[in-house]
Write a structure and sequence with these properties.
With about 475 residues, the protein is an alpha+beta fold. About 30% of the residues lie in helices and about 25% in strands. The protein is built from twelve helices and 22 strands. It starts with a strand and ends in a 24-residue tail after the last helix.
Length: about 475
């Protein structure tokens, strides 16, 4: 029997797992996907929010500011990419300037450092490609960009090294309280635990409502994006937002931490919690935003779009995070309603949840906690001399597999054999970026499959895109 089972290996679940791994306990993370960050965490803006737009006094505001402060240190400890590029909220008329003043006041109440309103002249000097309609802008210097799945991977790997077990492709079907413990019925049998942490994203209400009479409701709010090639990634330095509306922060234009550019997300509530398809009418809206004088004076060329994608946010009816022990279900803890700025807040959520669980179970901190981790080795970060020496020792680092992103065989092999190593094409992509470039895996797929087949000692027909039944090939042509 486990002391703690965490449902969900998204960024929230992985951050909680990492913080709990500081203690002497038997813990497990169960995830219905084949990898960490296989749900909401893999499809979001990757923006590190400063915390100026959360309602003062809310848990969301508190954890946003705390999470922002934690992320920069964690990036050094756990070796994942981040960039402090700042955020701008752009006003295009005098009425919107009034809203900037409200955001500035919220920033001060929330304790966000350095936030100020810039004049048109100041902001145009900072970002000369902003729309000519720009009147003023709110500037938050602690804003940044991050690789969202690499945060989850780093936290998950570190938790695993420190003793947390991960069970993938394990879906929780039912939860029962019996004889002072919880029984989780899954597609792979029953799991018993003293304590449950519910970090199930858009499904967190489903699991909460299995054990509590006080029901909660979470709506899947779909956001769609257009992702552009790195050749237009220098349009803006900062993440550029419009003045927010009632459905969220609005459609922004921002660089990614890897040098691409995106337009999005939209915000549309959907019934289906698996509805991550893109839709033609919404993509047309994004196309018009890219072409028109939305935030940029420059038209973003549509022949530079390399992909479109959609993700779901877990919108809780009261629009605040729920991070607590459920009042009428002892030892059942919710980390629910974790929508934007959930990515930024996730390290602080992990700290808060671990403290509550450790106090409940009277856990003792372990000696020998491993706080550091190195990511997949990136030859591009080495000097020419260091790279040549690496290739001499391991020729796989001289064999380019993904030409768009210049990813080597050595990096892919590293990704496969790491803690929580990659076992599918998507998990290779998330760890190395092989297949994320201009051709979107058009050339490197067969070669990556060959490496997976060789390293995992499985037949090519067993290789999947994302686990389950998502096999890429069904057999050999001559046999068929």
């Amino acid at each position: 029997m486990y002391d703690v089972v965490i449902i969900g290996a998204g960024v929230t679940g992985c951050c909680i797992a990492r913080e709990l791994s500081r203690y002497q306990l038997n813990a497990c993370v169960v995830e219905k996907g084949d990898d960490v960050a296989s749900g909401t965490s893999k499809a979001n803006s990757g923006v590190i929010h400063s915390g100026f737009d959360a309602k003062p006094g809310s848990l969301m505001a508190k954890l946003n500011v705390e999470g922002n402060a934690l992320l920069w240190k964690l990036a050094e400890e756990l070796d994942f990419p981040v960039k402090k590029n700042g955020a701008l909220v752009v006003a295009t008329d005098e009425e919107e300037v009034k809203h900037l003043e409200l955001l500035l006041d919220q920033a001060h109440q929330n304790g966000v450092p350095g936030v100020r309103i810039l004049s048109r002249e100041e902001v145009m000097k900072m970002e000369p490609n902003l729309t000519d309609k720009t009147v003023a802008a709110l500037y938050a210097p602690t804003g940044g960009v991050i690789d969202p799945f690499n945060l989850a991977i780093a936290m998950g790997e570190n938790a695993n090294v420190n003793g947390v077990e991960f069970r993938f492709e394990t879906e929780v079907l039912q939860i029962r309280k019996k004889n002072g413990k919880y029984e989780l019925e899954t597609n792979h049998g029953t799991i018993e635990t003293k304590c449950v942490v519910n970090a199930a994203g858009v499904y967190a209400d489903k699991f909460h409502n299995m054990v509590s009479e006080e029901k909660i409701h979470i709506t899947a709010r779909k956001g769609e994006y257009l992702l552009f090639d790195k050749t237009v990634g220098d349009l803006f330095t900062a993440s550029v937002f419009p003045v927010p509306g009632k459905m969220g922060k609005g459609i922004l234009i921002a660089p990614t931490v890897h040098g691409n550019l995106y337009v999005g997300p939209t915000a549309n509530d959907v019934e289906d919690k698996e509805s991550t398809n893109t839709t033609q009418d919404i993509l047309q809206v994004l196309t018009e935003k890219a072409k028109a004088n939305h935030l940029s004076k420059r038209v973003i060329p549509m022949n530079k779009v390399i992909t479109s994608f959609a993700g779901l946010r877990a919108h809780q009816d009261k629009h605040d995070f729920i991070v607590q022990e459920v009042p009428d279900a002892e030892c059942f803890f919710d980390a629910a309603g974790i929508e934007s700025p959930g990515l930024t807040s996730s390290p602080a959520i992990g700290v808060m949840m671990a403290r509550m669980v450790s106090e409940k179970l009277k856990l003792k901190e372990k000696t020998g906690f491993v706080s550091a981790r190195k990511g997949v080795l990136k030859p591009e970060k080495l000097t020419d001399e260091e790279r040549n020496e690496l290739i001499k020792k391991n020729p796989a680092y001289g064999n380019i597999i993904c030409r768009c992103e210049m990813i080597t065989e050595g990096e892919i092999v590293d990704a496969i054999h790491r803690p929580l190593g990659a076992k599918s094409m998507d998990s290779i992509k998330r760890r190395t970026r092989a297949g994320m470039g201009r051709c979107q895996a058009g050339f490197c797929t067969p070669r990556t499959m060959e490496i997976l087949s060789r390293e995992l000692r499985i037949d090519m027909t067993e290789i999947t895109k994302k686990g389950g039944g998502s096999r890429l090939v069904v057999g050999k042509t001559k046999e068929l």
